[in-house]
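User: structure tokens for this one?
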Amino acid sequence: MKISIKILLLILAFSVGTKAEIVNHKLPNKLIPTYAHNVEVSQDVACTFHITPNHNPKVGKSSLAWFALTRQGGKSIPFSKCNCQLNVYLEPRNSDSKTIMNPELKGIKTEQYQDIPGAEIMFPQAGVYDLEIIGSAKDGTSFKPFKFNYSVTVTNR
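Assistant:
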């Protein structure tokens, strides 16, 4: 796979300001790093996503989904500066799919992040869901509009 130097520099610029936590799992005589948060890039915005507990939500139990947004160069985008919306779809999803819920995003503080978009979600049934966060700058110029999609598997209690 060939990666252009521009894409590589963009990814590096975002990763300076966005901390992806690493958890090491030990197998006999080997350490295998795995990532606790998912990071995506859209336009000039990067998003670190996490859902509790440990990316393993359960049916009928409240889960906190949060999205740490970062501008190119590593500067955080506070929830208070973003017109953000969270849409939840049941998979499989097609162009006619309707949202099953639109949890209210609020500015939250979690881990090392402050004033980031977060929402409590209670999934109604086991299955795979698509969490879509879309947003734009409240001032219209600080960053380009973005859209991120994250697949979440919900299991029974």
